[in-house]
Amino acid sequence: MFEVKWDGVRGLAFVENGAIAFYTRNNNRCERQYPELQVLPHYVDAQQAILDGEIVALNAQGVSKFELIQPRIHTQDAGAIAKMAGKSPVHYYAFDLLYLDGYDLRNAPLAERKCLLERIIKPFPLLHVSGHLNGSGADLLEAARQNGLEGLIAKSAKSIYESRRSKTWLKLKVTAEQELVIGGYTPGERDTFGSLAVGFHEGGKLIYAGNVGTGFTEKILRELLTQMQTRIQDKMPFAPDKMIPKGTVWVRPDLVAQVKFAEWTSDRKLRAPVYLGLRADVPAADIGRETAVEGLLPSDKKEVVTTINGHSLKFTNLDKVYFPEHGYTKRDLLNYYDAVAPLLLPHLKDRPLSLKRYPNGIHGEFFFQKNTPENYPSWLRIETIDKIRYLVADDRASLLYLTNLGCIDQNPAMSRVGSLENPDFILIDLDPYECGYDKIVEAALLVKSKLDAMGLTGYPKTTGGDGLHIYVPLEPHYSFEQARGFAEVIARLVAAFAERPVRLREILETTHSRGYTLLLALLALPFCTPIPLPGLSTPFGIVIALIGFRLSLREKPWLPERLLNTELPTKFFPRFLTATQRIVRGMEFFLRPRWTWLLDTGVLHHAYGAMILVCGLLLLLPLPVPFTNTLPALTVVLLAAAMLERDGYFVIAGLVMFTVTVSFFGTMFLCGEAVVNVIHKWLTGTL
To answer: What pTM value is reported for the model?
Structure first.
């Protein structure tokens, strides 16, 4: 929902039993300044009501201008106020209803609050409902520009009322204008002062934004000087900045000025600022820098040539419609990527891109492009991988160059240059399979519960389609095969422990039918930091659990010898593995003639797989130190049997390892911690 952004004084109107009181954002009563509004309760169909709106003064064209109401803010003389009220009365534009005859409406959706507001307001020349406008944001903003309005307010129709800044209410300004804190003034040729030193709050500091030296009348200069002289202090209120003029007189930073300016410079300073007036209705502590709405590319040009990051870029066909349902053009997409570049680029950094180009918009034919042609600009970063020239977008210029080619979405690899064989996240892809989106949410919550149990954090993200992606950060240390195995473990755990397994399997069956390939995706933007498993330096326990699970299903584990090439959490693995191989080879020699009949039964195969599964799951638990230091060695004993699989004697090796493991566990539980410590020291060679 779009509304006009009124350029006046924000005012909460408290209506009760035929009387009205106005409060500013600074929580100051101000109805004395606007006596012509005292009759408004007669035109509000309610005994008690709280309205939110803007008190404005209109020019001859019916456009609100802050400089017209500014004299009313500071005037205290009742006679002068009455004279101004008669000559140019103010108007009250109500845009929200917070309370109505005993009902608190703040948690009701905005659309419903607006409907109630329209019902209770009766016709009166000075009281208006600020209705919402229909149309696309871009078209409405352009209409606001042509009609001389300050801008628009974009609001979510479902938003509740919040007494603070909210992402559900966004300012869309046409002109560069905002409130700034006065932190000092400089002497000048005038008898009063030369300019105001102004700034904005950010990160707990007052950031210097420049000096304002125009827009004053002689009367305003003297009134301002009088107020500032009572606030002079020795300490500079701004954060250190070399651009602050020498000789500036510091003042207590509690005065707020309304300033109009041409633009923000690259070093966040005002260009051509003009003073408009003081804002006594706004707390100085709330003043932050407002982001300008005007994008990189203006709306009145079909082609633009500009310099970005020192490179000349030409943007063409800017009026081409890319999203016909909403009317968004190529210009809108470029402006969007330019606005989000500071957030997006850290996640694209060092990632090879597979370009997906939409020459004719989102619904037109698209094509993929991996290899970068030789005629592309030489300043683009190219990484050759397997004889393919991949493009990497590390800066704003590269990102916008790709967007101009028709890359509506970005398709980065799961790993970065320098660690291409090691992904830095795992992606769980939940797609609907003959079910609604509520089942996707159910599955996502189940995945979260299992990740929480493992000490990991997942980050959900919509896909642009019907499903949901969950990103799990990884240190760039593990292979794609290991990451894929981990994703499979999570999927199986979720399916096994779900309260409604049938519904969940309907979702997970989609990925299962594709060989688990959808559990890992190439379209990803990880926006988190790696979180290691507590007490475990590798996902060794998870991989082991997966091997055991597959063995219990009489499936052959995939390349177990590769798993033993990973970094192991204790230093005595190699020694233990060598001893185990010798024992197993010897036992096979004696058992081979007598136990071949067991090969076809599968009983021991299941038992062997179950034992490995148990060991893997135990590795994930926060067990006492002696146990956690010894358990990995036992797991390697079991894995040794998998490595020795040959000529059908896998089951016999499993039987031997089963016996050894049961004996070892029994010794640990019966002998107590002291004996365990002795065994641990013997294993590590420190006895």
So the answer is: 0.42
